[in-house]
Amino acid sequence: MITLYDFELDDQCYKVRLLLSLLGLEARKIAVDMLPGAEQTRPPLLLLNPVGTLPILTDDDLVLRDAEAILAYLARRYDSGRGWLPDAPAPFGQVMMWLSFAMGPLRAASAARLQSLFDQPGDGQTLAARDALRVMDDHMTAREFAGGAWFVGDGPTLADIALFPAIALSRDCGIEHEAYPALRRWMRRVRGLPGFITMPGIPDYH
Amino acid sequence: MTGWHPVTLAAGLEPGTAEGTRLFGRELVVWRDESGQSHVWEDRCPHRGMRLSFGFVRGDRLACLYHGWQFDGAGQCRHIPSHPALTVPGTIRAPVEPSAERLGMVWTGAGPGLPPDEAAVPVRSLALRVPGERVFAALDVGKGMRSGTLVILQHGARRLAAAVQTLSETESTLHLAILGDAADHRGAGQAEISLWAEALRRTLEEA
Questions:
Q1: Following CA atoms A172, A52, A93, A107 in sequence, which dihedral angle do they give, to the nearest 10 degrees?
Q2: Which residues fall within 8 angstroms of residue B195, CB to CB, at 6 or more apart?
Q3: A79: number of Cβ within 10 Å
Q4: In chain B, at which end, N or C, are there fewer CB atoms within 10 A of the end residue's CB?
C-alpha cells in the first residue's frame, strides 16, 4: 500500500503525483498543511522524515523522503519496462545527472515560486532560476537537432518528470516561457503522455 | 515603431498553439490556427484585458483562458460561452497586427522593409539579456548586410539570416536561420550554428 504525504500546491509533491499517475499506481494521499501550517516540521510527520520536508512516501514498511529518491524507487519497483529509469549505464548516468540538476541548480525555481506565491524566503532566486532553465533549453535545442524529443534517450524518463514542474509553473514567479522555445515544445510532449495530470498553476486545456 | 520585426521562428510555432512575446515592451500573442495560418495580435482580450497568449486555439479561433471568448483570424469575436445564443456584435474585436512569414520567421510591422522570401532552415530563437542594438553591433554589420532588423552574414560556407527582436530596453531575441535547403543544413549544420550563437551570447552578456 502506497501512501503519499502531499501538499497540492507543492511542485515537489506534484512530481510524485505525476509519476504515480503515469505508472497507473493507486496511492492513498494524505493532505498535509505545509503552508502556512508547516505541519511537516512537527511530530508525527517529523518522526517519518526528520528533515521536515515534503513529499514523504511510504510503501508498506518503507519510508522515503525527497521527490527524486521517491521517483527512483517507484520506477525500480513498479516499472517493469525499465523505461523511466534505464538499466544501461550511459542513460542511467544521464538520468541521474538531470535528477541531480533538479535537486541542485533548478531548486532556485522552486524557491522563487514559493517566495512569489507565499512570501517564503527565496528572494533573489529568479535570475538563478532563469539560468537553470536556459541550461535546459540549450540541451533540448541540441537534442532536437539530433532528432531527440526527450531529455535522455528515445523516450520519456524520470529526467523529464523531475524537470517539468519548474518550467510549467515558472509563470507563478513571473518567468515567462518566451525565452525557452525548445522547452515549450517539450512541455507539449510531456502533456501528451498517457496518464498526464496537472496541478494548480498548470492549465489543463490541452 | 516602424519597419518589420521578427517575433518567432515559423517552424517552432506549431498549429493550434499560441505564445506570448514582447516588442519594445508591448505584449504580443503569436498564434497559429489549425489550418496553418499564423497571426500576431496585441496580447489583450477586449473583454477583461486577460493575456490571450494564456488562452488556447480551437480550429481557426483563439479563445481566452479567462471566460472562453473566441476570436476568429480577423480578430472578430464569434462566441461568448456565457451567452451561447448571442450573435456577437461586430464591434467586439481583438487587436490584430499586420503579420507575414519570411525566411522561416514570423514578422510583424508596418510599411516597407518586409524582407523578400527565400528558402531557409530554422535554427533557434536565442534570448539575450542585452539591448537589441548591442546584438546588431556584435553581428559585425560591417561585414554583414543589415536591412532594418535583419542581418545577412556569412558563417563559413553557410549564409545566415540573423534577425533581432527588441523585447525591452534591456532584452532582445536573436532569431537565426540558415539560407538554403534542408538537405544541406539540417542536423549538424543547425547544431553548429546553435553553438556559435551560444558563444555569441556569452560574449555579449559578459561584456
A1: 30
A2: none
A3: 16
A4: C
Residue A206 has pLDDT above 60, yes or no: no
> Both ends of chain A: CA-CA distance in Å?
32
Q: How confident is the model at residue B45 (pLDDT cuts 50, 70, 90)?
A: very high
User: A17, A44, A78: which is the final residue of a domain?
Assistant: A78
| Residue whose C-alpha is closest to residue A102's, from A11, A200, A8 | A11
Which chain B residues touch A182 with a CB distance below 8 Å? 124
Number of domains in chain A: 2
Contact flag A185-B21 (C-beta cutoff 8 Å) = no
Cα dihedral sign, A14-B12-A175-A142 = positive
On whether the CB atoms of residues A138 and A144 are closer than 8 A, the answer is no
pLDDT over 70 for what percent of chain B?
99
Counting one residue from chain A and one from chain B, the pairs whose CB atoms sit within 8 A come to 46
From the number of C-beta atoms within 10 Å of its C-beta (0-12, 13-18, 19+), residue A25 rates as middle
Is A184 close to B22, i.e. CB distance below 8 A?
no
Which of A40, A18, B180, A194 lies closest to B193, judged by CA?
Answer: B180
Amino acid at B154: Q
Residue A72, pLDDT > 90, answer yes
What mean pLDDT do residues A113-118 have?
Answer: 90
Q: Is A47 on the interface with B (CB under 8 A)?
A: no
Phi and psi torsions of B89, nearest 5°: -60, 145
* Distances A46 to A9, A21, A54 between C-alpha atoms, Å: 20, 27, 10
User: What's the number of CA atoms in the CB half-sphere (13 Å) around residue B150?
Assistant: 25
Structural domain boundaries, residue A98: 89-191
Question: What does DSSP assign to residue B115?
Answer: P
Q: pLDDT tens, B108-129? A: 999 999 999 999 999 999 999 9
Fold of B118-206: TATA-Binding Protein (3.30.310)
Name the residue in chain A with its Cα closest to that of B28: A178
ipTM of the complex: 0.92
Specify whether the CB–CB gap between A133 and B182 falls below 8 A.
Answer: no
Instruction: Report yes or no on A133 lying in a domain.
Output: yes
Q: Mean pLDDT score of chain B, rounded to an integer?
A: 94
Superfamily of domain B3-99: Rieske [2Fe-2S] iron-sulphur domain (2.102.10.10)
**Tens of pLDDT, residues B58-97:** 999 999 988 999 999 999 999 999 999 989 999 999 999 9
